[in-house]
Amino acid sequence: MPLIPKSYLREALDLPDWRLTNHQLRKAAILREVSNAPAGSRILDVGCAGGDISIEAAAMGYQVKGIDLEEHRIELARSIATEFEIDVLFEISDAVNLSRLGETFDVIIMGEILEHFHEPWKILEEIALLCRPGTLLIATTPNMASLRGRLNTRQGRKIESPHGVTAFDRRLQNLAHCSHVSSQL
User: Fold this and answer.
1) How many domains are contained in the chain?
2) SS3 content of the chain, % helix, strand, coil (to 5)
């Protein structure tokens, strides 16, 4: 049972129902993977948006840092964490120069952000600098070739990206070439 109810997220994140449902399904899958990490593991959530994945992971007993480029998203994440009394560190930061964080993590979550970069391998090279041996990288991207993706496109729904979208398939696995980043697609 999620800590943050869907009705709360609908209002806080201002998402249409179809996107909120997709988000909830993706969040559940990510949190299932996270639950395999040892208790107390350090997690970085890159592009955390409203912070609900970070908050849910922290509620599971992990040390979580969520970063996002947009200040209003970080403010929202902080307010949700405060309301639910969950300890999470949220920072305004971009994904381009992650190595400046000077930290390493046991789990790194990149939920639907790689497609917003024209050179995603550069982001993955930055991520590699934050990895410890055995770090789990959980990266999700929209599957525009799926039935849902095709129906959304046909109905005029688009992935919101002011900077364009890079399409991926299983070749993304080849981008995770760092020796201690595992890729599970």
Assistant:
1) 1
2) 40, 20, 40
Q: What domain range is 170 assigned to?
A: 6-182
Long-range contacts of 121-127 (CB under 8 A, 24+ apart): 121/175, 122/96, 123/95, 123/96, 123/98, 124/175, 124/176, 124/177, 124/178, 124/181, 125/178, 126/95, 126/96, 126/97, 126/98, 126/99, 127/46, 127/98, 127/178, 127/181
Residue 93 lies in a domain: yes
Angle at 28 between CA 26 and CA 29, to 5 degrees: 65
Size of the chain in residues: 185
User: Over the stretch 5-42, which tens digit does the pLDDT of each residue have?
Assistant: 777 777 777 777 877 888 888 999 999 999 999 999 99
Give me the CATH number covering residue 38: 3.40.50.150
